Amino acid sequence: MLQQAFNGLVSGAFYALLALGLSVIFGMLGVVNFAHGAFYMLGAFGAFILLDSFGVNFWIALPLVPLVLGTVGVVLERLFIRRLTPLDPLYNFLFTFGLALILQDLVRREYGVNSQPYPRPSQLSGSIDLVVFTYPAYQVFVLAVSLLVCGAVWVVLTRTRVGMIVRASTERPELTRALGIDVGRWVTPVFGFGVALAGFAGVLAAPMRAVNPLMGADLIIVVFAVVVIGGLGSVFGSVAAGFAVGVVSALGNFYVPALSQTLVFILMAAVLLWRPAGLFGREEAFR
Question: Which of 15, 99, 175, 188 could form a disulfide with 35 if both were Cys (CB 3.0 to 4.6 A apart)?
Fold first, then answer.
């Protein structure tokens, strides 16, 4: 059971990173970024292309690919998202949904539908003795790095002036504007940061999961459920729900495999029946 729970924490690491980016983007822009899964996929393919075509190893790709994708996110926000934000939220949803399909088809046109291999870093190819059981070193690395990144984001959001402005703009944008803070100037870097987190998760996933054009589409639906469970716009809720959903899914897959595909959505329905705003969401946002 402990090993299955640890498997769930590793899976939850990806959910937490993706949900964190989604939550920040939704909280500040009110945009349901359906292309988030496509950026996750591009992160994995970016690492693969750098290694296959240029010989750039994992350790360089890990910071480089998110930086490039974050820049792409900034450009997208300036050129498209910003123009659609004043309109009905459905327009941005349709734009990001269409963008996800375009990105997936472009990658599929170039690399096909077969999975591309990506080796684990040689430094992390062995196993680590965790006393109760041994576990692959790379998975332990993924969990540690995701906790470190989520913790660093939490420190920035709660212990710095910039972080407090971003958090206030994310969770209470109207009140923040009323206090004289220009929320608009923070929108572009926050969107780029959210996209960069998706790319970072993709690079981490490349040595563990199949690198293929649909890897993001298979994951993004679960991530949306994670964000809803944690509470739309709640940064802490998204991270906590990401790890919790990972553990619940892993234990459910082991003990009740017949419900493995639907357990997350059963959990989401139960949470919404109890708290329509999610575990850490604001009730007034839904009134």
Answer: 99
Q: Who's near 188: CB < 8 A, 6+ residues apart?
A: 74, 77, 78, 82
Which of 274, 63, 24, 41 has its CA nearest to residue 168? 24
Q: What is the pLDDT of residues 179-220, one digit of tens each?
A: 888 777 788 898 999 999 999 999 999 999 889 999 998 789
Distance CA 265, CA 225 (A): 7
Q: How confident is the model at residue 171 (pLDDT cuts 50, 70, 90)?
A: low
* Distance in angstroms (rounded) separating the CA atoms of residues 216 and 38: 5
Residues listed for the chain: 287
CB 60 within 8 A of CB 121: no
Residue 129 CA, chain-centre distance (Å), reads: 29
What is the biggest distance separating any 2 CA atoms in the chain, rounded to whole angstroms? 56
User: Cα separation of 23 and 222, whole Å?
Assistant: 14
* Helix (H/G/I), strand (E/B), else coil: 67: helix
For residue 169, what are the CA distances in angstroms to 93, 163, 182, 232, 262?
Answer: 21, 10, 9, 14, 34
Structure tokens at 266: 């059963």
CA pair distance 76, 190, nearest whole angstrom: 12
Residues sharing a CB contact under 8 Å with residue 252, sequence separation 6 or more, in sequence order? 259, 260, 263
